[in-house]
Amino acid sequence: MAPIQIKHSLPGRLRLHARALRRRPQACRLAVEFLQSIDGVLWVRCNPAIGGLVLAFRPAELTPERIIQALGGLWGLNAPARCRPAKPPAGQAPACPACQSDSADLEQADISTPRRRFLSIGAVLAVTALRSRLLGAVVAQGLFSPLGLIAAAFALPLAAKGLRELLKGRPGLDSLLGGACLAAALSGQAMAALEILFIDSGAEWLRAWVTQRSRRAIAEILEITSHHTFMIVDGVEVEVAVEAVQPGDVVVVHGGEKIPVDGVVVEGHALLDESSINGRAELADRSAGDQVFAGTMARQGVVKIRAQRVGDQTYLARILALVESSLQNRAPVEQVADRLGRATMRLGLTATALTLLLTGSFWRAFSVLLVMACPCATVLAASSALSMAINNAARRRVLIKGGRYLEELSQTRVICFDKTGTLTDTQPILREIFSYCELDDDQIVELAHAAELHQHHPIAGAIQREAARRGLRRREHAVCQYHLGRGVEAKVAGQDILVGNHKLMEQCGVDVEPARRDALHMTDRGRTVLYLARDGHLAALLAISNRTRPEAPAMLAGLRRLGFERIAMITGDELCTARGLADELGMDVCCYSVMPEEKAELVRAERQRGGKVVMVGDGINDALALAEADVGLAMGAGGSELAIEAADIAMVDDNLASVVFVCALSRQTMRVIGQNFWIATGSNIGGLILGALGLLSPVAAGMLHMAHTAGVLANSARLLRFAPPALATPEQPGPEPVVAPSAAPATDNELAA
């Protein structure tokens, strides 16, 4: 048996992981009951999705070692379970919300049972086909033949499940499939019964596999902080495990390290990468008195932080827990195949009873029953089309995690986009150069590059890439001093060069008034302004921003042609940056300066109005909104693993044309399913009439079944060749965007047209 792991431990609280509990709800219930019976245990929660146990206990009465030893005894180990301590991230999400999920959904994630069933039925079909076709043997298909008994054995669990559905007054596809398989076996059509069971088990295996893969990253939780940190103890920096940090402790974070706690800076100055929280590409300048969050990265500088929330209580950990809870508590969407199956079942049973009543002929009634009791075409009407569409999307590097999302996507009319990493590139570029001296653009870039030569700031990277693009010679600086949060001062070829913001210029006495109008214009367009001074005089102004993806305008035009009525941008960026891009792309709605949970609130507010919403994003800060939306689309390149797993559809590359493709594919798939429904239903009705009139023998009914099944498959196969629509750049800009300053759903921040 797998060892028990201590994932997190605090006085009176313990989080364990045991593979023996994973995807085993009954084992989890037994473990919870057993632990609750131990004196000193206050409460226990178990999450079968990840095999996790969380419990609170009285430290004076129990120790983690005694608890682990008790669990070892429960599972029949001769010795106490081997404890293999793990070093969990401080931002590990609390199990409590996820532990309250319904175990019925988790049972569907058990992939082993449907896999064994699918492979076993496939083996039987393969052996039978080899015997009949290669060896010429006659294969008996009667109920009491070996093949008939095998078919009945595989059909009985499905029939029993269908019977339970009928008794509850909720007949579904299982009722129809179970009855169809038993009827086929009784009538000497064991191969037909096995074909139906093979299709059903394959679909069940696929659903279980997708469910398991979709939750894997959530179950194992991202390591969003380091395992160790430095804490001030008696005035000395001491390296400690992150789980040892308590609220009120002071931790020290150096450049290149992740912040392990939520807290307030009490001393120091640093530039932080907060993109995991708010999605902003620009580094944030943080000093004494500023709030900081776990999971953000200190790029430069050193800060001392007084911890306010640690471990499971940090902001990012709670966001991760909400994502997991949202994934496991989605309202179920009825599958198209279930609706078709119920309709076929009602029609088949009614027609069989009426035929027997009106004609008094058992054989006519049996022919009608056989036509309606082999619902492969009805079952395949939806599943084959969805499978073909998912296969086509996969070949174009788009992962669709289930047919239900294609169905929901076809019904959406509102789509929301994150900005950075989705509509724009993640790396800033040098947009414009304004010269206020005799130097040309190449000379200005060359000087700026020499000053920023050894810097790792994203803005310095933009200058370095521009110098490489222009093929400029590399010039070294003699002296270089970096001013945190302001810029850099260097000596280049005997000249004093300053490259930085207006604070650095004021600090060094450089007059920036000649560039004031240009700077205001660039700031209004959402661009970062960088000044370059030479020997104490302003030389140039550099405008830097993230590049809008070139396919973005054509993508938005394609979405409007598909029927999307409202296109919104929801971003953590500030007003000027967000509004500039919204103006450029013609967005209907622009919401800026929003935090991750506020993004989810905006999506939720739109859903409550009765409209289905698509959310497109790429980062951790988008994960909760992706999970809240009816359909979440995650951009793959540069995106976080959490966003990929929280989304319903994941695009492996970062080509926005894939958004239009998958939206068009969903609509085409629903059209094909409708056509398949009429093919299946029309042929069933025709066979029903012929059988009732005595013009269709049981053998001919089987042939009809094969013919309309082939017709449905052929129609669905057209989706394999479905190509994304050509994108054309719009001739006219879209409507003037509505700019909202905050994200409270009760204010103007709602997605209002």
Describe this structure in words.
With 753 residues, the protein is an alpha+beta fold. It has 25 helices and 26 strands. The strands form four sheets. Strands 5, 6, 7, 8, 9, 10, 11 and 12 form an eight-stranded antiparallel sheet that branches. Helix 13 runs antiparallel to helix 24 (657-692), helix 13 (376-395) runs parallel beside helix 25 (698-717) and helix 19 (552-561) packs parallel to helix 24 (657-692). The longest helix is centred in the C-terminal third of the chain and has 36 residues, at 657-692. It is globular, with a radius of gyration of 32 Å. It starts with a strand and ends in a 13-residue tail after the last strand. Mean pLDDT is 75; it is low at 77-109, 217-225, 324-334 and 729-753.
**Major sheet details:** 8 strands, antiparallel
**Stretches with pLDDT under 50, minimum 5 residues:** 77-109, 217-225, 324-334, 729-753
Q: Given the C-alpha coordinates, what overall shape results?
A: globular
Total strand segments: 26
Provide a count of the helices. Answer: 25
Assembly type of the chains comes to single chain
Helix and strand composition category: alpha+beta
Distance between the termini: 58 Å
Mean pLDDT: 75
Rg, nearest Å: 32 Å
